[in-house]
Write a structure and sequence with these properties.
The protein contains 11 helices and 9 strands. The chain is of the alpha/beta class and 273 residues long. The chain has a 9-stranded mixed sheet with strand order 2-1-3-4-5-6-7-8-9, sandwiched between helices.
Length: 273
């Protein structure tokens, strides 16, 4: 089922506008190319409306904020909403500083997001900090484990329902949910945490999956998470003596480049709850 999602990306080559952080911008572009999408990067306020207008999706990542890029995020997001484009929010570091938290909350208040993707701490911050999501159970633990899985699934479904967005929480166990269904995904390797930006890469790739699969958005988001996790497994299996995290990053991108629907369907590890 999920394999069709990546095949649709390769068939349609969706153009994705990325307002992302300068730590990972090159890797985001390469992962989008590897999965079959096409990246374009712009955060200049005078440029973003035109750029996002020619794309099918917008990926907003708040990892390295400045006043100019924040302005660009709101302009691009509102234009994307006018055009009914797919829009993803990656609230990197929400909760770590007032600027990041306030920016993410305001973005959620003013822009309709197709997907919100982050780690459990970032998502909890948004659940607590947004006036539109008060009442969400934020007592879920800061790590999704088998012991906390039931409460985490309830939390992510509740937040998806109240925010009106698909919510993807990535970690040792990944959760991708709308208000009714939650994909519990167990692909990936712990060594992926030694690479800067696998989450940022996933957000760019997920946006392409959404654009290419407009009638199956929850499955598309889950397929992107499985693709990244499975690429981490394949990349790690291909590591040689003397290889380190730089090589591992490249092997993950190579694994995505060589991924197809059959490989994804065979390797995806998930259940729906």
């Amino acid at each position: 089922m999920l394999g069709k999602c990546i095949e649709n990306v390769r068939e349609t080559t969706p153009l994705v506008h990325n307002i992302t952080n300068y730590v990972t911008v090159n890797d985001v572009a390469n992962v989008l190319l590897a999965c079959g999408g096409s990246p374009i990067m712009s955060d200049e306020p005078d440029d973003v409306v035109d750029i996002t207008s020619i794309c099918g999706g917008l990926n907003i990542n708040i990892g390295t904020l400045n006043k100019s890029s924040i302005e660009g995020m709101f302009l691009a997001g509102k234009r994307a909403n006018e055009l009914n484009h797919m829009v993803l929010l990656d609230p990197v570091g929400a909760g770590a500083s007032k600027l990041r938290t306030d920016t993410a909350v305001k973005l959620m208040d003013e822009i309709k997001f197709t997907v919100i993707r982050g780690n459990i701490s970032e998502i909890k911050t948004l659940a607590l900090g947004s006036g539109t999501t008060k009442g969400v159970d934020a007592d879920v633990a800061d790590a999704v484990t088998d012991e906390t899985l039931d409460s985490a699934v309830k939390f992510v479904k509740d937040f998806a329902k109240k925010s009106g967005s698909i919510v993807a929480i990535t970690g040792a166990i990944d959760l991708v949910a709308d208000g009714d269904r939650c994909f519990v995904i167990r692909n990936g390797r712990p060594e992926m945490g030694k690479i800067t930006g696998t989450g940022c890469q996933l957000s760019g790739m997920m946006t392409a999956f959404l654009v290419a699969n407009p009638d199956n958005l929850l499955e598309a988001a889950a397929a992107a998470v499985c693709t990244m996790g499975l690429a981490g497994e394949i990349g790690w299996a291909n590591m040689q003596e003397g290889d380190g995290n730089s090589t591992y990053r490249n092997r993950i991108i190579d694994a995505i480049f060589n991924m197809n629907g059959a490989i994804l369907d065979k390797g995806a590890k998930y259940e729906v709850r």
